[in-house]
Amino acid sequence: MVTKSLDIENDVLLSSIRKLGDNSKESYVIFDATNHHGILACNDSFCMLTNASRSQILNTDYFSWLSIDEKKTTIKMIKEKIHNGIMVQAKLYHNGINKSPFWAEIQALPFCNEANRTKYVLVLVKDVTYYRTEDFLMRLENDMYKAIERDSTLEQKMKIICRGLDDFFTPNIASMVLVKTESNQLQVFTGNDPEESVPRCCENNAFFIEVMQSGNARLVENLDEVNIPEEHKQYATLFEKPYGWFVPIRNQQRQVIGLFSIYFQKTRSDQMSFKNMLQKMGSLVALAVTYARTQKKIWDLAYTDITTGLPNRHSFVNSIEKEVEHGLSGFIKILKPSEFHQVVELYGREVGDELLRQLAKRLEQDKPEDNEYVARFTSSSLIMSTLAHNENLQEYDKRIKETIRQPFIIGGKQIYITLKTGIASYNNDTKIIDAIRFADNALSFAIDRPGTHTEIFTTEKNDVLIQKMTVLNHLSQAIKNKEITVHLQPKVDLRDGEIHSIEALARWISPKLGFVSPAIFIPVAESTGKVLEIDVLVLETVLSWLSERQRLGKKLVKIAVNISPDHFYYTHFVQDTLKLVQKYNIDPSYIILEVTENIGLVDFQSAFKIIQELKSYGFKTSVDDFGTGFSSLSYLQQLPFTELKIDRSFINAIEDAATLAIVRSIIQLALNLGMISVAEGIETEEQVEILRALGCTVGQGYFYYKPMPIEQVDKILDQ
Known about the structure:
Layout: H1 2-24, E1 27-32, E2 38-42, H2 44-50, H3 54-57, H4 72-83, E3 88-94, E4 102-112, E5 118-127, H5 129-149, H6 154-168, E6 173-180, E7 185-190, E8 201-203, H7 206-214, E9 218-220, H8 230-238, E10 243-250, E11 256-264, H9 271-303, H10 313-325, E12 330-337, H11 340-347, H12 349-366, E13 372-378, E14 381-387, H13 393-403, E15 408-410, E16 413-415, E17 419-426, H14 432-447, E18 453-456, H15 459-480, E19 484-493, E20 499-510, E21 514-516, H16 518-528, H17 531-551, E22 559-562, H18 573-583, E23 591-596, H19 604-616, E24 620-626, H20 632-636, E25 643-646, H21 648-652, H22 657-672, E26 676-679, H23 685-694, E27 698-699, E28 708-709, H24 710-718
Helix pairs in contact: 5-6, 5-9, 6-9, 11-12, 15-16
C-alpha cells in the first residue's frame, strides 16, 4: 500500500510538472533525478529543437544531450544544485540528432518528494544561438575597436578574431586567418598558443587561389586530399580537428583579401548560419587589414623621407632607442657632402636628393656587417648608427674614401664629393638626442677642415660650442648697450720706432660674461651678420676720438679699422662710410680700412669698384693677415691696396729658413706693388732686426705696444 501510495503521489507530481511545462510555451523535458536522470516526458517543441522523435528522447539520460565537449565542471555544478533542490540557469551547448550542437539557455527546476529529496526536474530549453552569436559579434567588434584605439598590431587584432572564434565554439574548432600580402603570399594568423609551429607566411598556392577566386566556402573532409601547407595539417592534427572549412574573406568593395581556414572535430549541419557569422567576422578582418595598411602608409609618410625613399630622422631615432632599450651601444655618425649646396645650386634640389640617396646606397653595400642603419638627417646630410663597442677611425676613413673614390653619376653628370663626418657614441648613459647633438657638434668642427675629414666628439668641442652659443645670446644686447668698446694698438716705423699709425680693435667686457675674447665673439658676429654693426660702432668710436683731438688741436694719426668683407655686398657701403667720416669732420686720409684676405671671395669686379671708390675719396686700404688664404696673388696685383699686413704666424717662425723665404717674398711683393709692408705679432728684438734687414718698414706687436684703452694712447701721443 505504501508503494502504491507513493506511485500515485509521483504520478500526480509528474502530471503537475507536465502542465507547468506546457504552460511555459517553451521546449521542455522532465527527467527522474533518482533514476540516472532518465527523461520521462518532453513536448513536441523539444523534439523539433533537437531534431529527434519521442522514442529517441524518452528514457535517455538528459545530460547525454548536453555536448560532451562542455566543461565537466559545469555539468557537475548543475547536477549538484538540482540534487540539493536549487534551481539552475545556464547557457551551454546542446546536442540534437543529425544536427550540430546549438547554444541553449536552460532552466532546471527541481521538484522534491515528501522525503524532501529531488525527484523530478523540469528543464526548459531555449535555443539562443542567434542571440549568443549577436552578443559574441558585438563583443568581438568592441574588442577590435579597442585594439584599433590602442594602436595594436595587425597580429594582435587577428589574434582577437581567432581566439574569439575558438572560444565561441570551444573546443569544436581551431581557426586561422590567412591574409593576402602585397607580394602575393598569405600572412598566417592563429589564436592558439602553439602558433610558433606555424610559419607566419605561406605560399598562396593553387588550392587557396581556387577557393578565393570561386568566392564560395569549401568543406574538406580529408585534409590529406588538399594542397595546404604541412604545418597547417599538423596544426589541425594537434587539436584533433580532421575536417577543414575554407571561407573567403571580402572587404567592403567585395574584393577577396584572404580566407578563414577552420578545422573541425566533426562536420556541422549549420554551415549556413556559421557562414553568415563568418561574413560579419570577415568585415572585422577587412577593417583591421585596411586600417593596418592605412597605418603603414601613414607610418611611411611619418618615417620615410619622400624625396629619397630613405628612413627619416624620426625613423632613425625610433630604431636607435629600441637598440638602447635592449642594452646595445654604438656610434652615431652624421655625414655631409661638402659640395652639397653647390650641387643644388648648379643642378637643382632633385640632384642633391639623388646624391644623398646614392651615397646611402653605397654605404649600405659597403657596410662590414648587418649592424648599421642609415637615414636622412637634414636636407644636406645623412645619419648612420653603428653597433660597436669601439670605433676604428682609421678603418672608417679608409672606407669613406673608398666610398667616394668613384664619381656619382646623376642625370649623366659625374659628381665628385668630399665628405665630412661627425661621430659620437650612444649607450644607456647617453640619451639619443644628446648623442645626435654631440655628433652634430663634431660635424661642425669637421666642416672647418679641408677635404674629406672626420671628427669625434669631445667635451672640449662641446664647451666651445656652448661658449659660442652663450656669446650669441648676449651679443645683440651688447651692441645695443654699447658694451663693445675700442682698444688701440700702435703700428711702429721699424726704422726710428715712431708711431706710424694705430689699429682699432673691438673689445667686449660683458656685465654677465666678463671679458669675451675677440677670437670668440668676432667669428660669432660674422656668422650671424652682427659684425657689420660692430664695424660701424668701432669706426664711429674712432672718428669721435679723432674729432675730439682735432677740436683740441692735438696730433692726429692714421687709424686702421677692420672691415668685414660682408660690407662689400652692401651697395651703400662707401657712401655710408663717407657720410660718417664727414659727420665728424675727419679727413678720409686718416682712415685705413683693413679687410681680411678672403676679400678675394667677393665678386672681383664689385671689390675693384669699391676699393677704387674708397681711394678716390682719400681712404687708405689694407689687406690683413696676408698669406693665410688661398687666392692672394690672383687679385692682389689688381686691387689698389695701400698696405699689406704679414700674418703673425710667419713672424713667429721667421727664424725658420723656409718661413724666412716666404716673408722675404711678401715684403718684396709689397714693394713691387707700391704698398707698405706691415709685420704683425712682433715680440722680440731679433724679429725686428730680421724684418729691418728684409726691408719691412712698419711693425706691430707686444714688443712695442699692447692693445690699450684710448685714454692711454692719448697720453702716449701727447708726450
